[in-house]
């Protein structure tokens, strides 16, 4: 296998451990959102998973994983149970140092070991991406914690919907990822016939979203899918999740107001139902994920890696899909109740930014740094 490049893995580990120094213990144990785990759990989980795949699955050593599996395997411990079962930050800091040293010893052995998970450096890539994805989830939790503070940003000003579209001719396009980094749901690489379409050259902004709100977009059932309208009414949804009303207008609170908060920044804090309603109001639609990927591969998309961009599709298997290295990463979510988000956000680590990467969430998730880009049919 490819020798372990220690610098990137070490950097991801250190970013993970830095969370322990950023907050007091009460904050580290707090569940900031019903769909998110405490920050302290994420730190332990990331180091545990590295050891599980490397020490246990490759070398058969369960010394580390046996005492902790009922806490750090998500299916064995509900999010609400995790806080009370976690060690404190001082113990966690020492434990993660010990686990990193153990793992480094196994990475050194792996350079001279044959195992399917080690072929072409697959496992190292898998582990790096796991750290990367959880680090973004940590930032989601941090953003939710920041909602308790009053935002210090300027109020959002409504902007005209002056969308510029890039037209793409119908063509045969190749989708998916054949690199060792690819997750199972990105494979196999496929070629499909794509009809002509147009896609916006930039995501929808906060100011444009305010224009939708001012036009009564949240109050017009004709813009919404029936299930989305029922959800909007039941939960009183009337703005992006992290917007706060002030006497001078709407303000955006995101990670203590550090980024994404001006009128011209891409909007996020919206679910798939909201994105669909906005697109209907704009006389457009969400891009299909094949369209999004084709446009990205042709360099037709500006302002990517700002927000995850909702696509119109339910998350589904590509023809010829085979689960790897375990069924639960993708297979359970091909249920028609999860929808694709493409691209990346400002909080996404480079390890998972590629044209073929497929993110997926329920349509009601609004804490996931997701926004939208418009598309439309062309003749």
TrEMBL record:
- Indicate the segments forming the DinB-like domain, all copies: 9-137
List, alphabetically, the PANTHER family matched: HERCYNINE OXYGENASE (PTHR23150:SF36), SULFATASE MODIFYING FACTOR 1, 2 (PTHR23150)
Record domain Sulfatase-modifying factor enzyme-like: where: 169-301, 307-376
Query: What is the name listed in the Swiss-Prot or TrEMBL entry for this protein?
Result: Ergothioneine biosynthesis protein EgtB
State the organism of origin: Salinisphaera japonica YTM-1
Checking InterPro entries in the record gives: CTDL_fold, DinB-like, DinB/YfiT-like, Sulfatase_Mod_Factor_Kinase, SUMF_dom, SUMF_sf
Q: Does the keyword Oxidoreductase apply?
A: yes
Annotated pathway:
Amino-acid biosynthesis; ergothioneine biosynthesis
Record keywords, A-Z: Iron, Oxidoreductase
Coiled coil regions in record: none
